Every structure is written in structure tokens, then in C-alpha cells.
Amino acid sequence: MGVAVLAIDTSMSIDDEELAIYSGHFNRILETCNPEKLYVIYCDAEVQHVDEFVPEDYPVKLEMHGGGGTQFHPVFEYIDAHDLDPEVVVYMTDGYGNQHEFTSTYDTVWLTTGTTDFSWGKVIEFDINA
Questions:
Q1: Domains and CATH numbers, the chain
Q2: What DSSP assignment string belongs to the chain?
Q3: How confident is the model at residue 107 (pLDDT cuts 50, 70, 90)?
Q4: 10, 71, 84, 116: which one has the fewest Cβ atoms less than 10 Å from its Cβ?
């Protein structure tokens, strides 16, 4: 796999338990998909932090950066501004944000622990209580 982006919702509605679950999914993606490079973009109402990883970095523990409101579009704006050209964007979120106010041409997977109300991208619901 080439370049991939993992976006992490770090708004105030995301707690440590949910971030730990996101870390588990992140490590499975890194180990299984073996991307050339994986960018992790932490975003609440704006991009708060960006990390770059390669498969040799496995395992990785994600850290909280943010804690404000939720906006999804800054991640896609960051991708464009930095010419990342990912094969896929995986956005880990509880799903409560502005996903209906914009769209993206990037193949996007919403891994959501909350609402599944997305009008674009592929939605995968994950029950953190299961």
C-alpha cells in the first residue's frame, strides 16, 4: 500500500478509552496494510498535531492532541495543502461533526463509535461496548 491517512477525532467528546480503541485499530492497519507511510492527523475543530509512521514503527500508542469542538474538513484541507495524495483516509470518530457541509474526492472510511449519519464515504460502525 502507498500513503494512507488516519484522522483521529480529538474533540472533547472523545475519552481515553475511545482513544485506546483507536490505537488498537491504528496498529492493525499499520501491521496488516503495510503502508509506505501512514500520516496520523489529530483534529478537533482544527488540525492539532500530525505524526508520520512506517510499518517498522509498530506498535504505536496514539496520544490526545486537542479537546475542542469537532470539525472534519480541516483534515482534508491539510491533506490538500501538503500534497499527501493518500490511497485512503480512515477517520476515527464518534461521528458528531460537520460531515454534511463538505465532501472529498479521497476514498474515505468513517470508523465511527457514535452516529452513522454520513452522506459520503464508507461508514463502519464500531461498538466500543461490545
A1: 3-125 (3.40.50.410)
A2: --EEEEEEE-STT--HHHHHHHHHHHHHHHHHH--SEEEEEEESSSEEEEEEE-GGG-S--------S---SHHHHHHHHHTT---SEEEEEE-S-S-TTS---SS-EEEEESS----SSSEEEE--TT-
A3: very high
A4: 116
